[in-house]
Amino acid sequence: MSAGVNKRDVFAASVLDLIVRGGIQSVSIRTVAANSGWSVGALQKTFSNKDALLRAAVDLVISRAEARMDALTFSGDSVDYLVRLVEETLPLDQQRTEEAIAWNAFAAEAIHTPWIAEILIGQDQLVSDQLVEALRSFGAAQPEAAAAGIIAVSDGLTLRLLYDPKRAAEFCTVLRPIINHLLTI
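The chain above was modelled as a monomer; its predicted structure follows.
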């Protein structure tokens, strides 16, 4: 690999790849080194242990999702904007599917790994706060309740699409009426 390559990103992407193919249990210093094409020594100079690798992978998923959300523009239709926001979280293409698989693996691991739980809780709160702020600006009567509902819909549809991807069009079609309803509560 070339000297100009950001090894942190290569290793984090390798962790995501391993999680997608075999779950968190498939991640180790050795497997990440082999999967990324770097030596164990090179990896250990960047990440001292498996937890540090997992943290980098969580951060990568978060940064990718944030970049997609930040790229969305508001066209004046709040429901349309919120539908597009939720669609960016759904596993509708390969990258988002891989991120959803990894995120759900992290969520399962968080049950037994407090530091992962803390990261996910923090990210959940950040997303909720940002969504509540947007909903307030759209004039939602109960922005906290609407935000909780939108997040629940996003999480539920994401999980279902991981094991039933053939229903993607159907689930995307129901987003507009669901979000429209959530804005009225």
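The two ends are 54 Å apart (CA to CA).
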